[in-house]
Write a structure and sequence with these properties.
Among the domains are: 108 residues, Serine Threonine Protein Phosphatase 5, Tetratricopeptide repeat (Alpha Horseshoe); 57 residues. Helices cover 66% and strands 0% of the residues. Helix 3 packs parallel to helix 5, helix 5 runs parallel beside helix 7 and helix 6 runs antiparallel to helix 7.
Length: 254
């Protein structure tokens, strides 16, 4: 009986490792299959089962199965709530809350995602330390939420702190540092007298002396020169090779 249990645990570990590897290789379907098999053996209420549920949640989120992904992350958090703290449970708890926030972010629920990232960041700073790689990853996620909500100053502050943590711990050439190289920018406002999709230079040109009438928008100026309204869709051009193709077909019939 003990040998059978050992064999089952070995198979569960193999499934868990395969699920993590498949997720890293961009094969979420394979990761989901291995993760489900591992959870079935470990049990959802165990620490190992909760750890694999986090992998399952992330793989389902990549697939777009957001309902199942959110359920897996919440099951992991519920299982960890019944267990004591300490390593590695503290790290798994941070990962589970981070995974839940990622699902909510993918759904577009930015306020709820921000709350999960904030709670996970507080847990990470309290249990793992402010210089941990998971702390940097959570700062990056908070920066994403701020960026999507238009708070570029807060996003830049989170990105800068995350990069500083990675640079101090692993160096600027680390892969995680490369993934944190974000440049949040404000979208440029289009001038009123500009054509759709193009910037106008009319505002920067000085008016001639004598108080001449205001310059027309660039769209109308080009329309006056060419007689073509740039806003109207143009008819599709005929291919130059069409007559040649018809000529070749005619010669083939002869």
């Amino acid at each position: 009986m003990q040998a059978a249990d050992t064999y089952a645990i070995d198979r569960a570990v193999q499934h868990a490792v395969a699920a993590q590897a498949a997720l890293g290789q961009g094969r979420p379907r394979t990761a989901v299959a291995h993760a489900r098999a591992a959870v079935e053996i470990f049990g959802a209420g165990s620490a190992d089962g909760a750890n694999v549920l986090v992998v399952l949640s992330r793989a389902l989120c990549v697939q777009g199965d957001w309902d199942d992904a959110e359920a897996a992350a919440r099951d992991a958090l519920a299982a960890l709530a019944e267990l004591a703290g300490g390593e590695p449970l503290d790290r798994i708890r941070v990962h589970a809350r981070h995974a839940l926030g990622e699902v909510l972010l993918a759904r577009g629920d930015y306020p709820a995602a921000g709350k999960q990232f904030t709670a996970a960041l507080q847990d990470a700073e309290r249990t793992l330390g402010g210089e941990d790689s998971d702390t940097a990853s959570l700062l990056n996620s908070r920066g994403l939420v701020a960026r999507y909500r238009g708070d570029f100053a807060t996003a830049e502050r989170h990105y800068t702190r995350a990069l500083q943590i990675v640079h101090d711990s692993a160096g600027p050439d680390d892969l995680q540092a490369a993934g944190l190289q974000h440049k949040p920018r404000r979208p440029r406002a289009r001038p009123r007298n500009a054509c759709p999709g193009r910037a106008s230079r009319a505002a920067s040109r000085p008016d001639p002396p004598g108080g001449a009438r205001p310059r027309a928008p660039a769209c109308r100026r080009r329309q006056g020169r060419t007689g073509i309204d740039p806003a109207r869709p143009r008819p599709p051009r005929r291919s130059r090779t069409a007559p040649a193709r018809r000529h070749r077909r005619a010669r083939t019939r002869l």
